[in-house]
Amino acid sequence: MRIHGLSPEELAQLEERAAAGDRTAQLDLADCLLVGHHFAKDTERAFDIYNHLYYNGVSVSFTCDHYDRVMDGLIYCYYNGVGVDRDTDKATRLSKEKNTSWNDLFEN
Question: Is the model's pTM score more than 0.85?
C-alpha cells in the first residue's frame, strides 16, 4: 500500500473499507495507526486491529505478506509494550508460532 501521500479521500476510503470488514484495509489501517502515518498515532487501536485479525482466522493462507504483517505487528506491540502491556513471553510465543507456521507450510 502507498501510505505516504494519501489524500483525505483515500484515507476516508481506507477507513470505510476497514469498517466494512476488508481485512487488507484493516491491516493497512493498523500499520498507519501504529506509526502515525496520516493519522493520529493510536497504538492501542493498531494493536486491537492486529489482535482482531490474528484471532479471526489470519494464517499463512491469508497471504504470506499479510500474515507476516499481522504477526510482526503483534510481536512488536507485545515486545515493546506498544498499545498493550509489555509481555515478552507472549511476543516470544507468537514468534515461535510464526516460524512454526512457515515450517509447516514448506513441509506440506
Answer: no
- CATH label, 8-107, candidates 3.40.50.1820, 2.30.29.30, 1.25.40.10, 2.40.110.10: 1.25.40.10
What contacts 101, CB < 8 A, 6 or more positions away? 59, 60, 67
pLDDT tens-place values along the chain, 108 residues long: 445 556 778 888 999 999 998 988 999 899 888 988 666 789 999 999 999 999 886 655 556 778 889 999 999 999 999 999 999 999 999 999 888 866 565 565
- Provide the grid cell at 56: 479471526
Rounded distance between C-alpha atoms, residue 108 and residue 106, angstroms: 6
